[in-house]
């Protein structure tokens, strides 16, 4: 299945389906931030975790008086600056935090494009990780090599499975959101293949 098919399918989901899919993808990305934070002492993974939990709550209870603006203000200072860190882990950490901000902005502005961005960011994180690994190993990391890499194929498969799951959820309840979150991390690894 080509990449376009997954993104086409995401575009066809309804607003809430796109939101829960984005949340599920962030569940896979967030531990990358935690590993970066542990290694550098920068940022607070618990803060991001808490903000993601608030987003799930907002998705399930859209009329709740949750102040996402306040959450955004808490997250922004926790996005690492690339120039401040000389390590690859900075990229997936930035991507995880940026995805979370996209989810929050999407929920605040009811902007589905923000939710679609999350799946694109997740795939870009994987692509960058593959390029980095291949370059370190002295291999040529062209588009074809990255696209055909087992980790990218796996990312595409996981995304397809999550889309299938979301399409079949029916009404979005706390029960099936729990099941979706479980599905997202069932393989015990982040989107770049690091153990949870």
TrEMBL record:
Organism: Pseudoalteromonas carrageenovora IAM 12662
Top-level taxon of the source organism: Bacteria
The protein, known as: DUF416 domain-containing protein
One Pfam family per UniProt: DUF416
């Amino acid at each position: 299945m080509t990449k376009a098919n997954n993104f086409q399918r995401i575009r066809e989901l309804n607003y809430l389906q796109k939101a829960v899919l984005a949340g599920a993808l962030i569940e896979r990305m967030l531990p990358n931030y935690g590993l970066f934070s542990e290694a550098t002492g920068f940022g607070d993974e618990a803060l991001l975790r808490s903000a993601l939990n608030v987003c799930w709550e907002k998705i399930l209870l859209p009329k709740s008086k949750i102040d996402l603006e306040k959450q955004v203000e808490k997250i922004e200072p926790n996005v690492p600056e690339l120039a401040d860190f000389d390590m690859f882990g900075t990229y997936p950490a930035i991507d995880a935090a940026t995805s979370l901000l996209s989810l929050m902005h999407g929920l605040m502005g009811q902007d589905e494009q923000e939710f679609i961005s999350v799946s694109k960011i997740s795939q870009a994180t994987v692509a960058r990780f593959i390029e980095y690994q291949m370059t370190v190993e002295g291999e040529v990391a062209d588009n074809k090599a990255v696209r055909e890499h087992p980790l990218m194929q796996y990312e595409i498969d996981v995304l397809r499975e999550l889309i299938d799951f979301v399409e079949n959820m029916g009404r979005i309840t706390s029960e099936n959101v729990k099941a979706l979150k479980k599905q997202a991390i069932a393989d015990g690894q982040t989107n770049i293949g690091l153990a949870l």
